[in-house]
Amino acid sequence: MKYLILVTDGAGDEPLEELGGKTPLEAADLKNINSLAAHGTVGMVNTIPDGMAPGSDAANLSVMGYDPKIFHTGRSPLEAVSMGIDMSATDVAFRCNLVTLKGNGNYEDLIIADHSAGDITTEEAAELMDAVNGAFATDRVKFYTGFSYRHAMIVHEGRTDYDLTPPHDVLEQRAGDHLPKGSGSEFIKDMMIKSYQILSKHPVNLARVERGLNPANSIWIWGQGKKPNLTPLYDKYQVKGVTISAVDLIKGIGLCAGLKAVGVLGATGTIHTNYEGKVEAAIQSFKEGNDLVFLHLEGPDECSHQGDLSGKIRSMELIDEKIVGPVVDYLNQSGEDYRFLILPDHQTPIRMRTHLGEPVPFVLYDSVHPAEPDPSRVYGETSGSKGLLFENGYELTDYFFRK
Q1: What's the pTM?
Q2: Which top CATH class is 2-72+229-402?
């Protein structure tokens, strides 16, 4: 049996007046996914436990089969693992975004305009992170370059009890209302403020402004945590497999779970990614004897954060056309039995441009036991609400592997 979990990051949403009361998933033309739904099972699942922030870290832990209330130690250590950073038991990892702040006056009065600095290239980001390291690195603190706007800070003998805010949760809001809080957090706040003075004048950003692009003119630090200890997926479900994603967080969860991270040239984490490369990587992984492919597409989430409704719909249609169709064709032609699970990790409503912890729809198809066809079963919130309900994401994953 081959298993494929496809995470359409942030695809969950709300009914929108401009879509005639449909959600973006319901408005999208998803021929391949909806064909699986018509012959499979649909439903809703809670991926975010009550009381936890609706972050991609908790959500994807849940989707991969782990109870976030037990295994969640923070987002950044998972990303640090993916980046190859060797963390000790007392190290604390932090996410370091390169963001765009706009406005005039003091740092506190600037507006958080873009959490991704216009999806800055990794090459440009590396130059900026070199400047950050040069300004702030010590024997205790060091910065590491990741991908695009996503980077890491490691603090040796660090603490985790700071109140830090993800920038994508507070877009278009005043920076001063969301600066680090808590005893001992002053050094983080100080670095963020000083980084604006350094990065605003950096040649990389001056060139970006000249080209009409958002400058990466500040670091924004959040998501602290220590390295987790996950039970290997092979011990849980007797499967070996891979993750395919442009996002360090997903790779890090997979590595901690005993999966191999497969890199794809041109995978960006946006709507403009290498879909063909991801399909080839998934198919090759199955050919090499892997049981599981955990395939993650970030495009819907990034479009949601940007408030781009047409882009969100189009990103789902591209996933349906360029990912789901070819993968299903391969699996059907291979003669292998397979199960295919498709779901968002969380909602990212266009209206809010940030994550919500509401239930999300899923589609589950089993080639061995297809359901009687019903075209009313589709990948969407309305259809899902009429199907199965899982109170916890890891319970859906258990069902998927043991169905």
Answers
A1: 0.83
A2: alpha beta
